[in-house]
Predict the structure.
Amino acid sequence: MCLSMEVTNAQDAAFSQYYSSHLYLNPAYAGSEPSLTAGVNARTQWKSVTEPYRTNQVSLIIPFYRKVDKQNNFGGVGISVYNDNAGSGKLSAVGANINLSYVLRVSEKSHVLFGVQGGIIQKKVDFSTLQWGSQYDAFSGFNSSIDPGEYNNLVSSTTYPDLGAGLLYFFKPDRNIREKGLGFYAGVSAYHLNRPNESLVSGQKSPLPILSKFHGGFDYSISPKINLSPNVLVAQQGTVLQVNAGMYVNYGFGNPESLYIPSDLIVGGWYRVGDAYIASIGLGCQAYTVGFSYDVNNSSLRRNTQGRGAYEISIKIVKPRTVKTRRYFTPRI
């Protein structure tokens, strides 16, 4: 493979189960969990090609409570770490972030959450795994002993700070989804607000484009056992626009107070416009939720991937509290 080097703006890695990796959806979600919560996501993409893309993240959320009110948290802190490995050039990114969120109770039915994020990102590439045009000759073809020279002005890694912020709104945040009724949630967020320089070319600048997101949806309980949650995600970074539209269905088949025995079945389907169809399934109870999703590629890459896209696994673990607390409803996966 020949490679010509040019400066381009990279795009952020993304998860299909974006509510199970919600600190990457909106920093304000650091204030949405009433209990100590840990999460893991593992995504493998385009496994049918030579070097699949892999993205992983782990997160921990710690809620804040006042001494006089142990039922309603007033905010929280979230810590998240991710690793993204892309392609045969061994291009990778590692990031660590701290998220802070504050909960404003406008009224009984309306809550607003504010969030900020600060962190650090390291991007690097292993140039020794790449083949350059100058390493080919007319007699032997590719010759690895030839010094390509092309990457003399390149750096193998760069590290930079990163800033983000977000806002969330919940209507009827503490309603019981096992009872008939309607709730609403929506948020906006922005990442890379400081436009850090991510260039791997010495002396050149390549500001990382701001990543803006809008997300929202309804949750509607049509019976004590069935809750519907149509929702949408719109994300834009530079000239790249991503739109996800779909719906979750939560079927409560067991005791909602169960700590360890699954009580909810979650299924969902989405269309990521111009790119892929996504199907997901999960099981949950008070102490944990496990989810699995699969992307079927529908873009021009379909010829190379045989229609296969990505699979993703998520695990969310919650430390049960002895005090009854309010939980903001958003889809679990």
The chain is about 0% helix and 50% strand. The domain at 27-129+158-318 is CATH 2.40.160.40 (Porin). Helices lie at 302-305. Residues 174 and 326 are 6 Å apart (CA to CA).
